[in-house]
Design a protein that fits this description.
The chain is mainly alpha-helical. The protein has a single domain (7-98), classed as lambda repressor-like DNA-binding domains (434 Repressor (Amino-terminal Domain), Orthogonal Bundle), CATH 1.10.260.40. Helix content is 59%, strand content 0%. The chain has helices at 7-22, 27-34, 38-45, 53-63, 67-71, 88-98. The longest helix has 16 residues, at 7-22. The chain starts with 6 loop residues before the first helix and ends with a helix.
């Protein structure tokens, strides 16, 4: 099995899978309800895909869920390869300290 796309993708996938399983639905059921291919649902659940906003909303609609719950608590540090690790608040603070 391939590695997760990122820690954030892995967590979101686990949360989607848990929602689906709690409802007793198969990946096929969710794929049909969300109008996507079942392999895409599987990749998302395994964290091997980085779903778009529209995909997350479609899955949430199919599962009668709040997509915000799936992404709650995720941070930029969970995304590999980011070159900018500062938040907006940190950038503003640094600019103020430097008098810019």
């Amino acid at each position: 099995m391939a590695d997760p796309h990122s820690e954030a993708s892995r967590i979101v996938g686990e949360r989607i899978r848990a929602t689906r399983q709690k409802l007793g639905l198969s990946q096929e059921d969710v794929a049909e309800l969300s109008e996507m291919h079942v392999t895409n649902v599987g990749k998302i659940e395994r964290g091997q895909s980085n779903p778009s906003l529209s995909t997350l909303v479609a899955l949430a609609a199919a599962l009668n869920a709040d997509p915000g719950v799936w992404v709650a608590g995720l941070t930029g540090a969970m995304i590999p390869g980011r070159t900018h690790q500062l938040s907006a608040a940190e950038l503003i603070r640094e600019r103020r300290l430097r008098g810019a």
